[in-house]
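Progress note, sequence design subtask.
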């Protein structure tokens, strides 16, 4: 829908593929998943990593994200991170512009990064592939192996 900024910054609602998903632990000791997403709209793959909290203060938001990633809302139990690999999911993205500390110079520098916009779509920035958001266009699948 939208392609703003540089080619490595895909902003808007697009269909992404889950390429990595691994268990991790937050600094507070809560379980989480680190989900790697990838899209290729400009000839160069763009990657995005999002954190999905499985407990603690972010657990309810994490549950919404998991549903958007295709988890059945009634599911209770242990998750297999590998079960998310290869899934295609609509993701709303935005640019988070905030300064960062340059460790080499000790100075604050302007910075920005691509993030999931949790205020969009049905499930905190995510929506199942089959549930095409209004105005979005399902990309055509290619049979070309390269």
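Output:
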């Amino acid at each position: 829908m939208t392609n703003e900024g540089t080619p490595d910054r895909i902003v808007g609602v697009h269909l992404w593929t889950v390429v990595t998903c691994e268990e991790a632990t937050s600094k507070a000791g809560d379980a989480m998943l680190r989900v790697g997403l990838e899209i290729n709209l400009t000839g160069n793959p763009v990657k995005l990593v999002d954190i999905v909290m499985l407990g603690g203060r972010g657990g309810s938001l994490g549950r919404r994200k998991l549903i958007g990633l295709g988890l059945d809302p009634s599911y209770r139990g242990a998750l297999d991170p590998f079960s998310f690999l290869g899934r295609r999911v609509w993701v709303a993205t935005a640019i988070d512009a905030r300064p960062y500390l340059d460790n080499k110079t000790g100075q604050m520098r302007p910075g920005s990064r691509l993030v999931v916009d949790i205020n969009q779509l049905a499930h905190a920035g995510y929506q199942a592939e089959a549930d095409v958001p209004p105005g979005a266009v399902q990309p055509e699948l290619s049979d070309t192996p390269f």
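The domain at 12-128 is CATH 2.40.50.140 (OB fold (Dihydrolipoamide Acetyltransferase, E2P)). Work on this subtask will continue into the next period as scheduled.
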